[in-house]
């Protein structure tokens, strides 16, 4: 099993658990807005860590903060009842498609 698969199973197991015993359960219990707030906070921490890393040439904090962001986005997906494999499939669809072309295709599909 990959780390993503292990986390997916753990998140599903803890989604409806006791919020007093599990951080994941607590996030789900507090609801979507709270989860979104955490994703926003973690995104900001990634930006700040990356700016610091550019000065210090040490990426350790960036790795730590990106891990936090990925984790909280996995919680978000779980809350919305979407598997991480949906994101991986979307990334796979984009392989071999230039970024500008992919972005233009998304704009065309959202009109």
Describe the structure.
With 111 residues, the chain is mainly α. It is built from six helices and no strands. The longest helix has 25 residues.
The biggest sheet, with number of strands, parallel, antiparallel or mixed sense and barrel status, is:
none
**What structural class should be given to the helix and strand makeup?**
mainly alpha
Please provide the count of β strands: 0
- Number of DSSP helical runs: 6
Percent range of helical residues: over 70%
Number of domains: 2
What Rg do the Cα atoms give? 17 Å
Query: How much beta, percentage-wise?
Result: under 5%
Order of helices and strands: HHHHHH
Query: How far from one another are the termini?
Result: 39 Å
Per CATH, the class of the largest domain reads: Mainly Alpha
Q: List unreliable stretches of 5+ residues.
A: none
CATH architecture of the largest domain: Orthogonal Bundle
Mean pLDDT, rounded to whole units?
92
What name does the CATH topology of the largest domain carry?
Helix Hairpins
Q: CATH superfamily name of the largest domain?
A: MazG-like
